[in-house]
């Protein structure tokens, strides 16, 4: 029963101990990492291999960066980056095959401050993602689009609507594009399992957010119909957010038959 995890590590070198700890303790089958914050040649490949994982990497010096890890297997890379903007050099999308599954690790642009060029870039990026998602659906295979989407889809996905009201993560345009993605035929696994909301995947380092449980849900696993048919569970490994020098995101997962 494969367990597929999305985990924004917020700097793989700074959080290596926490990441390896998670891999050893939980033994997930596939892990999509985001925000590696390191160029390919500086990434801790040997440490990840020592933990029992093969990996494909798409790093970038200082920020962004995505990877796909597979336990006792080597993921086969299918695509890095999204078509549609030859000027876009950000490492935000990596697609790989692991067994019969296609998985993509996604680090969607934050978009703040909005309005402005960063927000416009976010919306254009989401349109490009939608094009790729449509092509993947046409393959009629089990696909998981896993990552930090930097979108709070619903009001009950945030500890406070007023606190986030002006944030790019909660703007109508961001939400509309996320809903359009789901309307293609993707299943939001965590939402399906927690229809009433109130489940967080991120807690800011500021203002005692973790201590107050003032979080929101921005890490999502979207399943193609062929993957959704096999869905058996989805959740957040929240306790890992509370460990020393942890990422501000918690690992978020699905299990498939």
UniProtKB/TrEMBL annotation:
InterPro entries named among the record's database cross-references: AP_endonuc_1, AP_endonuclease_F1_BS, Endo/exonu/phosph_ase_sf, Endo/exonuclease/phosphatase, ExoIII-like
Coiled coil: none
Annotated NCBIfam families: exoDNase_III (TIGR00195), xth (TIGR00633)
Domain Endonuclease/exonuclease/phosphatase, residue spans: 5-249
Site (Transition state stabilizer): 150
Site entry (Important for catalytic activity), positions: 219
Active-site residue list: 107, 148 (proton donor/acceptor), 249 (proton acceptor)
Cofactor entry: Mg(2+); Mn(2+)
Key words, A-Z: Hydrolase, Magnesium, Manganese, Metal-binding
Any one Gene Ontology BP term: DNA repair
Family of the protein in this entry: Belongs to the DNA repair enzymes AP/ExoA family.
EC number: 3.1.11.2
Note on cofactor: Probably binds two magnesium or manganese ions per subunit.
Interaction with DNA substrate, annotated site positions: 249
GO molecular function (one): DNA binding
Residues annotated to bind Mg(2+): 8, 35, 148, 150, 248-249
SUPFAM superfamilies given in the database record: DNase I-like
Protein name: Exodeoxyribonuclease-3
CDD domains for the chain: ExoIII-like_AP-endo (cd09086)
